[in-house]
Design a protein that fits this description.
It contains 5 helices and 11 strands; from the N terminus they run E-H-E-E-H-E-H-E-H-E-E-E-E-H-E-E. It is an alpha+beta fold.
Length: 270
């Protein structure tokens, strides 16, 4: 039995790493007494599968974990998505809340393999709204935006432009990122690809800091520098794209094929 859970990561817990969050989930599921399925070998671990890693320091409204329960244990038959979420949620730390749950077909791909892009909301200080808008226009007009990115301990020059699918200033009438955003902050919304490599908000910031018009329409280069400072970043959605259609990894209300189990939405009021 494979249960997909959507959860949020908000507040001070955003400073914990992806590895720490995985350990939190393992402890919570163990303390909840759920009949977990385990890997084989000399060091068995609970069978958990997370979506694309959230950069440390960033918040999220749309994180995912697939929890595999052992069908060979009789207590599994008494569980459904809602019950599993309720038991696990009682042992998660403040700042991590389960917002939806669903039993999924165990044959489908993992969230990590399926997700092709993520939507982000970012809050900045250091530039006015007009100045940030001008930086965004320059970025969108550039045929390429090379930046230095670290990979396996080495710096590589990589073109960020194809991986930023959309980017635009937020509607100033909408309050998006709260919890400490300073007065005068400017916010934007961006869809960032996860393939071939995921894009982090700090890399978008670096590109916006340094991108500038190039005489003759040449390539704009992005590196360090600039006055733009990333204050907060929040992932709000993860997207799976197939045949030109985009959907989220957990679509509440649509039963998985061949499954007789109920689908549950456990949305919580804030």
């Amino acid at each position: 039995m494979r249960v997909r859970l959507r959860f949020s990561k908000l507040g001070k817990i955003r400073f914990t790493s992806q590895r720490d969050v995985a350990r939190m989930w393992e402890r919570a599921l163990r303390r909840a007494g759920l009949p977990m399925a385990y890997t084989g070998g000399f060091s068995p671990r609970p069978q958990l599968a997370f979506g694309p890693a959230l950069p440390t320091g960033c918040e999220s409204l749309a994180e995912y974990v697939d929890v595999v329960l052992d069908d060979g244990r009789p207590e599994t038959a008494e569980l459904d998505a809602e019950r599993t979420a309720g038991l696990a949620g009682g042992f998660l730390p403040a700042g991590i809340d389960i917002t939806a749950a669903r039993v999924v077909d165990p044959r489908i791909a993992s969230v990590q393999a399926d997700v092709t892009s993520c939507r982000w909301e970012m809050s900045f200080v250091g530039l006015s709204r007009d100045e940030l808008g001008e930086r965004i226009d320059r970025f969108l007009a550039a045929p390429s935006v090379p930046i230095l990115r670290e990979r396996k301990g080495r710096e590589e020059l990589d073109d960020l432009r194809p991986s930023v699918l959309t980017i635009a200033l937020s509607d100033p009438r909408e309050i998006r990122i709260d919890g400490g955003t300073p007065t005068g902050a400017v916010e934007l919304v961006a869809d960032l690809a996860t393939r071939p490599r995921g894009v982090r908000p700090v890399e978008v910031t670096r590109a916006l800091c340094a991108v500038s018009p190039v005489p003759g329409g040449g390539t704009a280069r992005a590196g360090e520098g600039g006055t733009l400072v990333l204050d907060r970043a929040r992932r709000t959605q993860q997207w799976i794209e197939r045949d030109g259609l985009r959907r989220e990894p957990l679509e509440v209300g649509v039963p998985p094929a061949g499954s007789g189990r109920a689908v549950h939405d456990v949305e919580r009021a804030s």
